[in-house]
Amino acid sequence: MFKAVWAEGRRSARTKPGRPSFIGLAGVAAGAVLAMGGLVSPSAAADRPTGIPILVYHRFDPAVAGSTTVTVAAFEAQLTWLAKHDYQVVPLHSAVAELNAAEPRSKAPVAVITADDGHKSVYTVLFPIIRRAHIPVTLFIYPSAISNAPYALTWAELQEMQASGLVDVESHTYWHPNFKVERRRRTTADYAAFVDNQLSRSKTVLEKKLGRSVDLLAWPYGIVDADLEAAAKRDGYGAAFAYAGGPAAAGDDQLALPRIPVSDADRGERFGVMLGTRTRARLEP
Ligand SMILES: [Zn+2]
To answer: Which residues have CB atoms below 5 A from the ion given as ligand 1?
Structure first.
């Protein structure tokens, strides 16, 4: 049943993000399949998936949920759901390569787990779980907070997680600015220099501290436009990620690939429908 929902969502996901007509159709289609008890043709279920859900998390807590905090019970329920429905969790770089592949590499559905902002619970709560389950994760980090802000990870923790081979550390700019605000209060030239500094300094610091190349970027608050995309390209990023929008599909803008924010309430059927449904762009809280 869920595979069918997934196939429906993925086919629809060829449409560009943010189109209201699409959102309605995908939501109705997925809901209808669920309501009807999963009556779908075998061919629909067998379609090669054309989109990849790239999940976004922020904080984890053993028991207490929050607006951007997922409990261990919810996270484990989500992992179980993925496994039960034959999803393979793959590294983000593999997903990007899959989206760009001329030919399908695999018929198996794949999903990606990312966590933004470098909260310390990524080390204390998430890391033990993914190590036990051997699941790859990408962290989007803004280096100004690391070994600095009380809520943030340390460089030693990032290095340890990276050494496990399961954790990939990528850029979330240098100090997580709101580019809309910065654009308003700076001159054009100053703003352009500020953007380049945020993008290149983050990349440089992460590469120096962690000893490997960084070429993926998550836009702070999900704010992205053509100028920001041009800067990302100029500053050496191969792909960049929005905050919301649903599963990423072949043909999507490589510098604003959609992701799926996950909350504590997203379990069971609700989680399954979300994985296959394109939505309006939404900003990070
Ligand atoms: Zn963020």
So the answer is: 116-117
